[in-house]
Amino acid sequence: MSRPSETDDISFSRDAEAAERLQIRTAVGKFLIMGFIALLIVATPVAFWIRSAAERHALDNAILHTQMVADLAIGPLVSKALLAGDSAALAGVDRAVKRWREDTSVLRIKVWDAEGRVVYSDVHSLVGQRFDLPEWGHALLAGAPGTATLEQQQELENEYESASGELVEVYVSSVAADGTRLIFEAYYDDGPVRGEQQDVLYSMIPPFLLALSALQLAQLPPAIRLARRIQYHQAVRNRLLQRALEASDLERRKIARDLHDEVIQDLSGLGFALESEELHGPVDQRPVFRRARSMLQGSVRALRAMTSELYPPDLDQLGLKTSLERLAEPHQERGLAVRLVIPEDAPLERGSSALLYRVAREALSNSAKHSGATAVVLTLRTDHQGPEISISDNGAGFDRTQLLPGGHLGLRILEDTVREAGGALEIRSAPGAGTTVTARLLPGFAASS
């Protein structure tokens, strides 16, 4: 596979810039959505509160209006003759009530005495009937303020109002012409109250929503600047992490070269010397030299394998797919069945490829050395959310709730490294259920390196 061209680098850079812009737009979009949700959360109870306050204000007005009518228009007409059931007195009150009903939205009026007897009603059949006076009735007669409710009328004494739907029911206390304490009850159509509710609501909600929206819009430019600043620092951190990864690879190459050019060469020379002594030395010492040469050759093979693992592949030249295939070959030769699920076309930035390769190398090494696994599946996926690599084995597994075993120190280091890159490394394992290591990186990681 040929080395990526400058055009490929420019393409990667453009993809990374597009990914960064997408992340900023996503962050701003989330900010706006959360702001809208917060607006609804704040506006909904405020609207209910305004509606309730408007209703209370309208009911208070109804109490005030009823109190004025009771004190000035009807109360003085409640005479002893009316209390005694005189028809002429009843007709006089009817005329006053008729004028009042023509000027207002009142539907029904009743006057009660302290014993719960209806002494006047525009429905004459109710006059003289007695009903149990509730506690609030006694409180009104004792001087308590008037009350008003907006509800469906279902009480026994509401025979003529129950079919009218919701009504405003008002109770106030006043005095008859002779000073007798009475209870005045009036029923109003709910239309004016609902109308006042809507007027207050419609007059207060728009400026309230506009104020909250203006606050939200005022916070938008700082939010965009903050998102860009966070994105910039994320890019700087990614570049620093990429430099650290490159420095680590350089150090691994240096160690591998030193082992190959010095230690392994010296040990190989020592092996030839031992072989010569084995062939030409004293006969009784030849078995000793043979065992020493065999041990030395084993050590040289182990060192050669170590240098192969230490020396990272040229990901730019080979690509991640070929590098992972070569990474799996030594494990396959030692009897570990490694199945690779890698797309043919998986363009990744250098930083992403290097970090995913490290995760795969560490996870495969742990599966081969510590888990007792016989099969491993390595899967690489790429999508708009970023690249993801997953390594699953059928080994012994371990209790994930405990600290990672000592043999998994490399995974702990990688977990921190991936997190520093803005990604996430997840380890799922259970005794007897194998282990799965999954790493996901952000799109555009270290693209500017």
Automatic annotation (TrEMBL):
It catalyses: ATP + protein L-histidine = ADP + protein N-phospho-L-histidine. SUPFAM superfamilies: ATPase domain of HSP90 chaperone/DNA topoisomerase II/histidine kinase, Sensory domain-like. Keywords: 4Fe-4S, Cell membrane, Cytoplasm, Iron, Iron-sulfur, Kinase, Membrane, Metal-binding, Transferase, Transmembrane, Transmembrane helix, Two-component regulatory system. Residues 258-441 form the Histidine kinase domain. It is found in: Cell membrane; Cytoplasm. Its EC number is 2.7.13.3. The keyword Transmembrane helix applies. The keyword Membrane applies. It holds the Pfam family HATPase_c. GO terms for cellular component: cytoplasm; plasma membrane. It is a multi-pass membrane protein. Its cofactor is [4Fe-4S] cluster. The chain crosses the membrane at residues 31-50. GO terms for molecular function: 4 iron, 4 sulfur cluster binding; metal ion binding; phosphorelay sensor kinase activity; protein dimerization activity. Gene3D superfamilies: 1.20.5.1930, Histidine kinase-like ATPase, C-terminal domain. InterPro entries: HATPase_C_sf, HATPase_dom, His_kinase_dom, Sensor-like_sf, Sensor_HK_TwoCompSys, Sig_transdc_His_kin-like_C, Sig_transdc_His_kin_sub3_dim/P. It comes from the Bacteria. Member of the two-component regulatory system NreB/NreC involved in the control of dissimilatory nitrate/nitrite reduction in response to oxygen. NreB functions as a direct oxygen sensor histidine kinase which is autophosphorylated, in the absence of oxygen, probably at the conserved histidine residue, and transfers its phosphate group probably to a conserved aspartate residue of NreC. NreB/NreC activates the expression of the nitrate (narGHJI) and nitrite (nir) reductase operons, as well as the putative nitrate transporter gene narT. This is Oxygen sensor histidine kinase NreB.
